[in-house]
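Thread: "does anyone have the structure for this chain?"

Original post by V.I.:
We have the sequence but no experimental structure in hand. Need at least a predicted one for the grant figures.
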Amino acid sequence: AMNNAGYLSSRMIVVLNDNGQVSLPTGTQSAGGVKPASQLSAYTSNLLVSKPFQDFRDFAKSFNRLLPENVQDVNKRIDEYARGVVTGGTLFEELGFFYVGPIDGHDLENMVPILEKLRDSDSNKPVLLHIKTNKGQGYAPALAASDRMHGVGKFDIATGIQQKGKAAAPSFTSIFANSLIDAATEDRAVVGITAAMPGGTGMDIFGRRFPKRTFDVGIAEQHAVTFAAGMACEGLKPFCCIYSTFMQRGYDQVVHDVAIQNLPVRMILDRAGVVGNDGPTHHGCYDLAYLGCIPNLTIMSPSDEIELRNMVATCAGFDDGPTVLRYPRGVGYGADKLQNLFGYDLEDGEIPTKGVPLEIGKGRIIRRPGGVHALGEDIAANGSSDSKLGSGGRGAKREDRVAILSLGTRLSESLIAANEVEEMDPDIAVTVADARFMKPLDVDLIRELAKDNGIIITVEEGSIGGFGDHVLHFLSLDGALDNGDLKFRPMVLPDAYFEAATQYEQYEMAGLNSHHIRGTVLRLAEKVEVPELAELEK
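Reply from O.Q.:
Generated one for you, tokens below.
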């Protein structure tokens, strides 16, 4: 873009805010040390004020005064050129820009007049204004926290400590990082890659354990994907850890450098679904849609912390092509909820600390009519379950039998909705299944659900074009909809952007919480009256 602007001689002002930051610099231990990637600015700034450089300039100036005036003028221009080389000014000027700086971005008395002069200039030449700033200037806690306080909720002004409730369970990010450490401990080929987001993706945790196997490439997602592809070519097992929303930048590389070559790159997408106060730029709404159409990809999404550990192990052991593992921002559920809501049979009530590989493309039934324990046995920690039908008089009619097929962590809301529906209506029988994989789909599971139920509802933390559309496409091609005895509804994130709010509030706006799922079941089962649009408009 800068090259093009200089070529066109377009009037534009580019402000380079040189604050030594990438996206989330954390001092993470990595193969490149603890500095953020791309340190040209820090190097040139340090060089400008370094003693050898200053001593040389002082000597040159003293010596220059002894020379004739015409020679002094030449030497002054040489000095300016040397400063330009060191600060980067010459580089920008070679691109066609008029370079101004570096100047102190916090000195407003100096900054404002400079900006006014640049604004009022008659020149048509593009300008680059190079300013030096400090992130968090004027507030000591922010200055001391390079990786935090970019955007915050409530916090104590005196100390900068954020007011957060104590989490009942570890975050999904930390569970992923520790699971990756387990995999790397057993396999020296496992490496981690991040694009300037070590703290947000768990690579800071991994980097402290395996600094020489951690690579931060800076804000360059395209390079991160291609870098991972090159590593895979050489027999390594790269885990390329990028926020779902930022993987969009590397889409071309996913197709051309990974998928076409069928390379075993593990793409780990943190922040899948809505993300809360980070807002619309950070929501991971689209990855299922934009990755689901690419051949050779295996795409999976865990419903809980046990499944996340299992899927990390699955990715580590899968070398037949690229894999995508997406998981949301947030924390796990804890042992009590996993046992009581999900029906897990946990040994001594403890969550397993190590994952086991899953069979590719195989989902699981979590709940039969009557509750999770109607399966005949609890779900084992490896995710296996008994497939026996539940007992009781529910679901005597096909139209009263409902299957909720979830992908990702909306499974908990689906289970709550199923329990509530059966408490409200003695005739409706609800089965809840965890798809686990979007690619490949578990077609045997889908066929079973279509055969046994009159209603199928898919639930996902993604936009239109994702999991629900893949299921609908399969059902249509498989002829399951031909007889008119199967109703299908996909529940997805709506075609809208969600501003900053809590994740619960955003899923409330999206219509993906338990009472929305419950309402969809009751409407399709014709247990509640749905008003006509004309009546609503009266």
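V.I.: this helps a lot. Residues 64 and 72 are 6 Å apart (CA to CA).
O.Q.: and Confidence is low (pLDDT under 50) at residues 43-50, 385-391.
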